[in-house]
């Protein structure tokens, strides 16, 4: 068995943020990722946008962690060499009602301490940026692994039981892990992992977001955001690190956590909105498409982060929706404090050196498309 202080179950961007924060405090950790490499789920099939929190509701944990991550991110991005485009974003209203919403967003951004500018009726958010979400995840895990963390892939947790005041995490295909605290960052399967330990207090379902990738007919200099609604941020048009343009996502609630397909109706749903936002897409044909499944909490639950009352020693980090990439560093710091309350001893906080990350032959969006559509 591997004997460590903390087991992090899930090697997506949230698990990577937690492992990185633990490694900064010198905590011996094992990361257990069920897939054959990190960031194969929701973390590798999103927009790659790093939001500022300008439109987040004050007083919510999600907002607090987004704003904290924005403070933590600049030195980490620089230290680890994570690719990023600081391109800013623009929201343009298409109705009187949306213009009123933009006024409220500008006021909310001021409360959140996020810089915005009004350009006529449009709202400009200079701090919004774009990254490679897979490279972001791998960089955090590689830095953690250079310290006191071990990252194991192809290592799904199949059981969690308590013995002699500690937890034993059973692992398919490898040695089990003995730990003082297990942190459940399993994304779509966070509820399944919690049940392994006897915690059935929450449920997760997939919210599908479908995207279409284009060779741009002309350069896109900014992220184009719609005016958000209560349920979704809506369809965006945004550039990628490697010069493509992506339009999406949809927001389709489902039950099948294995359905990564793009629906036949998705293209018309996305493009009617995307072309209105950016007319150069009129007549353009996508080079590929992909779907992401975001882990949504039942009954509107969101950012369920805390020590389990049903399973001592287990910390659930669940229902982290589409802002998980943005908030990951803030989530990591927050979870480390929870682990300390459960008895994990923390050393002094210190930055981690970058470590080599295997270069992918494919851009992240192409890898997501292969999962959705098969080899091209």
Describe the structure.
The structure is a single chain. By secondary structure, this protein is an alpha/beta fold. It has one domain (2-373): FAD/NAD(P)-binding domain (3-Layer(bba) Sandwich), CATH 3.50.50. It has helices at 13-24, 61-80, 96-112, 133-145, 190-196, 266-277, 324-341, 364-373; strands spanning 2-3, 6-9, 29-32, 49-50, 84-85, 89-91, 117-119, 122-125, 129-131, 149-152, 157-163, 166-171, 177-179, 181-184, 204-214, 223-225, 236-239, 245-248, 252-253, 288-297, 304-307, 314-318. It has a 6-stranded mixed beta sheet with strand order 10-3-2-14-22-21, sandwiched between helices. Strands 15, 17, 18, 19 and 20 form a 5-stranded antiparallel beta sheet that branches. Helix 1 (13-24) runs parallel beside helix 4, helix 1 packs across helix 7 and helix 2 (61-80) crosses helix 7. The radius of gyration is 20 Å and the shape is globular.
Please name the defining characteristics of this protein.
376 residues; alpha/beta; 6-stranded mixed sheet; 8 helices; 22 strands; 29% helix
Q: How do the helices and strands line up, and which of them pair or pack?
A:
Blueprint: E1 2-3, E2 6-9, H1 13-24, E3 29-32, E4 49-50, H2 61-80, E5 84-85, E6 89-91, H3 96-112, E7 117-119, E8 122-125, E9 129-131, H4 133-145, E10 149-152, E11 157-163, E12 166-171, E13 177-179, E14 181-184, H5 190-196, E15 204-214, E16 223-225, E17 236-239, E18 245-248, E19 252-253, H6 266-277, E20 288-297, E21 304-307, E22 314-318, H7 324-341, H8 364-373
């Amino acid at each position: 068995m591997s004997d460590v202080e903390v087991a992090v179950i899930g090697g997506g961007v949230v698990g990577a943020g937690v492992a990185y924060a633990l490694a900064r405090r010198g905590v011996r950790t094992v990361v257990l990722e069920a897939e054959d490499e990190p960031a194969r789920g929701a973390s590798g099939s999103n927009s790659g946008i790093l939001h500022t929190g300008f439109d987040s509701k004050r007083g919510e944990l999600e907002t607090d962690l987004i704003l904290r991550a924005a403070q933590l991110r600049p030195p980490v991005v620089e230290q680890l060499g994570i690719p990023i485009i600081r391109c800013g974003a623009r929201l343009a209203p298409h109705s009187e009602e949306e213009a009123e919403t933009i006024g409220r967003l500008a006021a909310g951004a001021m409360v959140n301490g996020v810089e915005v500018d009004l350009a006529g009726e449009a709202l400009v958010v200079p701090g919004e940026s774009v990254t490679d979400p897979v490279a972001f995840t791998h960089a955090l895990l590689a830095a953690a692994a250079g310290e006191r963390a071990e990252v194991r892939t192809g290592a799904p947790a199949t059981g969690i039981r308590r013995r002699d005041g500690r937890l034993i995490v059973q692992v398919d295909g490898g040695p089990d892990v003995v730990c003082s605290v297990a942190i459940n960052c399993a994304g779509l399967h966070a509820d399944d992992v919690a049940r392994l330990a006897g915690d059935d207090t929450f449920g997760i379902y997939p919210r599908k977001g479908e995207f279409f990738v284009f060779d741009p007919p002309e350069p896109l200099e900014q992220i184009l955001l719609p005016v958000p609604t209560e349920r979704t941020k809506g369809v965006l048009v945004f550039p990628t690190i490697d010069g493509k343009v992506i339009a999406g996502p949809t927001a389709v609630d489902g039950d099948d956590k294995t359905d990564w397909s793009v629906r036949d109706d998705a293209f018309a749903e996305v493009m009617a909105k995307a072309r209105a936002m950016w007319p150069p897409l009129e007549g353009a044909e996508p080079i590929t498409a992909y779907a992401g499944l975001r882990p949504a909490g039942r009954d509107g639950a969101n950012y369920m982060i805390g020590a389990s009352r049903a399973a001592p020693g287990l910390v659930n980090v669940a229902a982290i929706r589409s802002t998980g990439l943005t908030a990951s560093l803030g989530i990591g710091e927050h979870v480390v404090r929870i682990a300390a309350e459960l008895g994990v001893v923390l050393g002094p906080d210190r930055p981690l050196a970058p470590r080599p990350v295997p270069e992918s032959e494919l851009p992240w969006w192409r890898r997501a498309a292969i999962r959705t559509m098969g080899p091209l």
